[in-house]
């Protein structure tokens, strides 16, 4: 690891991009490194400045997801557009379709969204035909406007616990949740803090920083994967065995829940707009 860091500090773009991937969590388990999104942003940023298209796309996705605390759609859109204009990486095309479809960092543009989706389908496959894509896009724009003033009904449902065994360090396990909402709307920066208490009375607080979801009814995500539009999975990594013995052995308490709804910061817990659900 120290050799990659030394190379990255000397400006070797491949090493900078690799460090970005390791610290983002994408490859951290393999290296025994705890994710550090600020470090990931730093190294991806340095590689992106040198024109590394993979780093530019990865950095754009960090800005889009709000992994550092707040989404920045304008920066994400600028990075995806830069890669697309350079013509060096086909993986920018689908994210651009997504940004224009949902009006993120720009006004929604259904025709432009379809143009990018049609182009991307050569690489990722076509899951939505033009007529359906365009009709849903227009309808979703109107639905987001209609739901602009209504608070969401957010649900947080515990699903399972996942452990990769003794060789997967530093992460000991991950708690798997399912996050849901009731209607499509412009919701970002959804942060939910939970208190976890185990059978021995040990307690800790963990914050779930949930990427944007519930933006449309298209049935695919930014990667063209099939999804339920109103539900997203979330894996919460834990770095101690104290809470890894079984998800049903943990008592969960909602401590806070906030989000940005149509540009306004909202306390969802105070507004009674969030519920914690046990498994069915």
UniProtKB/TrEMBL annotation:
Signal peptide: none annotated. SMART domains: SEL1 (SM00671). Pfam families: Sel1. InterPro entries: Sel1-like, Sel1_AlgK, TPR-like_helical_dom_sf. This is Sel1 repeat family protein. It comes from Salmonella enterica subsp. enterica serovar 4,[5],12:b:-.
């Amino acid at each position: 690891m120290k050799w990659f860091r030394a190379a990255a500090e000397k400006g070797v773009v491949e090493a900078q991009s690799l460090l970005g991937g390791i610290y983002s969590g994408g490859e951290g388990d393999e290296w025994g490194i705890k994710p550090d999104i600020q470090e990931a942003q730093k190294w991806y940023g340095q590689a992106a400045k040198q024109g590394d298209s993979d780093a530019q796309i990865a950095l754009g996705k960090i800005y889009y997801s709000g992994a550092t605390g707040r989404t920045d759609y304008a920066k994400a859109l600028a990075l995806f557009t830069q890669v697309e204009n350079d013509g060096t990486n086909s993986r920018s095309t689908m994210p651009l379709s997504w940004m224009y479809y949902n009006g993120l960092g720009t006004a929604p543009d259904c025709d432009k969204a379809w143009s990018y989706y049609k182009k991307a389908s050569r690489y990722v496959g076509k899951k939505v035909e033009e007529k359906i894509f365009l009709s849903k896009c227009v309808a979703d724009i109107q639905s987001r406007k209609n739901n602009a003033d209504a608070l969401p009904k957010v649900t947080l449902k515990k699903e399972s616990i996942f452990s990769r065994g003794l060789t997967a360090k530093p992460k000991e396990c991950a708690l798997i949740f399912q996050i849901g909402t009731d209607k499509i709307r412009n919701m970002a920066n959804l942060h939910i803090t939970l208190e976890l208490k185990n059978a021995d009375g040990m307690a800790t607080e963990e914050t779930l920083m949930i990427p944007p979801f519930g933006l449309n009814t298209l049935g695919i995500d930014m990667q063209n994967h099939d999804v339920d539009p109103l539900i997203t999975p979330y894996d919460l990594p834990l770095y101690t065995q104290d809470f890894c013995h079984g998800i049903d052995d943990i008592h969960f308490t909602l401590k806070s829940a906030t989000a940005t709804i149509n540009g306004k910061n909202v306390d969802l817990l105070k507004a009674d707009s969030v519920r914690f659900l046990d498994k069915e």
